[in-house]
Amino acid sequence: MQFDWVTFALQIVNVLVLLAILRHFLFRPVAAIIAQRQSEIVAAKDAAEAAREAAAKARLEARAEAEKNATARHDVLAAAQSDAEAKRKDLVEAARAEATRIVAEARAEAAKVVADAEADTLRRARDLAETIARNALSALPAPPDVAGFTNLLVKELATMAPGQRKALLSGGDLRLVAPCALSPADLETASAALRPFGITDLAADVDPALIAGLDLKSATGIVHNSLAHDLHRISEALRNGD
């Protein structure tokens, strides 16, 4: 078998031509596409890196601004709190001063009211005592002895309704009540004045609370005829404004 150099040379030429064609129509476009893709990838990476750096910078700026705002807000709140505390202290001091002034004025006014009230009370008590004494003394008989008080007692019995007088005199345990023990002569004087009403064997009791006068008392009632009763009646009338 012989080696055909011509055929071999033609095959080499064919290979070279094929390689030239592939280089021109395949390798160069593919290389260009790859280079373009690599360039786009690099550009995208650069853009992403720039964006990341911008985001990091923005975060740092935002954090710094937030810290700055927080510091400013803290300063404002601290200043406002300090101002409010100062105003509160001023108000408390003003309120204390005003309260002290009001208390002092109230005490002075109360002292004046008490003094005026005491003076008015003393004046009214004096006037009341004078009125009671004058009215009570005007009701005393003249002279203010057993005979005089017995006459007033007779008048009181005479003006009573018959049924009321009968109930009193027939009640049993009928007796005179005097502020001190009656002498036999005084008891006889009183008994003689009361006999027209059918009163006999009249007994006498002592009650110092009467002050002056004679009361006629039985188991069913009493006829008041004493200075103590007059004083009580007058004071009650004055208390009620009569």
Short structural summary:
This protein is an alpha+beta fold. Helix content is about 75%, strand content about 5%.
Query: Biggest sheet, strands in spatial order?
Result: 2-1-3-4
Summed up, the helix count is 5
End-to-end Cα distance, whole Å, is: 175 Å
How many strands appear in the DSSP assignment?
4
Order of helices and strands: HHHEHEEEH
What is the mean pLDDT? Answer: 77
Structural class comes to alpha+beta
Task: Assess the beta-strand content as a share of residues.
Answer: 5-15%
Radius of gyration: 66 Å
The backbone outline, from C-alpha atoms, is: rod-shaped
Low-confidence runs: none
Sheet with the most strands, sense and barrel status: 4 strands, mixed
Helix content: over 70%
Descriptive labels:
single chain; 242 residues; alpha+beta; 4-stranded mixed β-sheet; 74% helix; 6% strand; rod-shaped
Task: Describe the protein.
There is one protein chain. By secondary structure, the protein is of the alpha+beta class. Helix content is 74%, strand content 6%. The protein contains 5 helices and 4 strands. It has helices at residues 5-138, 146-159, 162-169, 184-194, 227-239; strands at 175-178, 203-206, 215-218, 221-223. It has a 4-stranded mixed beta sheet, with helices on one face. A hairpin with a 2-residue loop joins strand 3 (215-218) and strand 4 (221-223). Helix 1 runs antiparallel to helix 5 and helix 2 (146-159) packs parallel to helix 4 (184-194). It is rod-shaped and about 205 Å long. The protein starts with a helix and ends with a helix. 10% of the residues are buried. The mean pLDDT is 77.
